[in-house]
């Protein structure tokens, strides 16, 4: 049973990394009258483009509390067969419920209250109602990449990254594996700071997607799927129920998605660089601009909520 659970769990990763084609059914359309999204089944939410998966990369070294090193909200859009990935920069300065300072960096929410508080913080500030979470730590990232793409991924490495991460390689194109790729996606000490880091994370995601899709198009690749599932899922944890995982597994290996859309939060002109005594350098968000961009990106309604903006003065209402 444990092995079965682990095999099914990787369907979430495949969903996030490879995607699938889901054909709307009458069952999905008949559920359109449900007003409360909590009453809808997992399958129908998926068919209606209303499921949001929070993928958290955790900066964990075995301690009890750890910070979220990378945060991404993933949604599969059935209508245009597009996987949507919205990366949230960890220095985003947001209101955190129960936090003694009121506002802090968004990765502080995970440190204080785990995935529950992080989901609540994302909803209250950005209007995205998270349904399920997938958590991967550093060791998990290395294990997953080395399992799915053992031949490595070719990326363009800058001299500043080589010097900062103490990498033994030449400037320019290099073929990197798990540990090196982890350093590549975590690097942030250049002029692009966290924005460059998110771009590298999304770049690696797309290249892993491409490599895995190519392998699954061969008979030998398909034959290795059970082994890949067994080896990879031990690095991942999720709050999905077994029934939901089985439901997702039943549709995750049909046909690949046609494209991946990416968004970085905060959006351009949707933030200011500030320094706060208790948090250091932060990105103060223009909630109105970011919520509007998120709503358009996901093609889903945002909740109507009231919140102070990042300087704690003006009231905003998202309509």
Describe how the helices and strands are arranged:
Layout: H1 2-17, H2 26-30, H3 42-47, E1 53-59, E2 67-77, E3 82-88, E4 92-95, E5 103-105, H4 106-126, E6 132-137, H5 138-148, E7 153-157, H6 159-165, E8 172-176, H7 178-186, H8 193-216, H9 219-223, H10 225-232, E9 236-238, H11 242-249, E10 259-265, E11 271-276, E12 280-285, H12 287-298, E13 306-308, E14 315-317
Helix pairs in contact: 1-10, 1-11, 5-7, 7-8
Widest sheet, order of strands: 9-6-1-2-3-10
CATH topology: Aminopeptidase
- Average pLDDT number: 75
Task: Give the low-confidence spans.
Answer: 1-12, 14-38, 300-319
CATH top level is Alpha Beta
Order of helices and strands: HHHEEEEEHEHEHEHHHHEHEEEHEE
* SS content category: alpha+beta
The radius of gyration over CA amounts to 20 Å
DSSP strand tally: 14
Number of helices: 12
CATH superfamily: LCP protein
Residues in helices, as a percent range? 40-55%
What would you say this structure looks like, in words?
Helices cover about 40% and strands about 25% of the residues. Helix 1 (about 1-15) crosses helix 11 (about 240-250) and helix 5 packs across helix 7 (about 180-185). The protein is α+β, with helices and mostly antiparallel strands and about 325 residues long. It has one domain (about 1-30, about 40-300): 3-Layer(aba) Sandwich (Aminopeptidase), CATH 3.40.630. The protein contains 12 helices and 14 strands. It has a 6-stranded mixed β-sheet with strand order 9-6-1-2-3-10, with helices on both faces. Strands 5-4-12-11 form a 4-stranded mixed β-sheet. Strands 7-8 form a two-stranded antiparallel sheet. The protein has helices at about 1-15, 25-30, 40-45, 105-125, 140-150, 160-165, 180-185, 195-215, 220-225, 225-230, 240-250, 285-300, and strands spanning about 55-60, 65-75, 80-90, 90-95, 105, 130-135, 155, 170-175, 235-240, 260-265, 270-275, 280-285, 305-310, 315. The longest helix has 24 residues, at about 195-215. Mean pLDDT is about 75; it is low at about 1-10, about 15-40 and about 300-319. The protein is globular, with a radius of gyration of 20 Å.
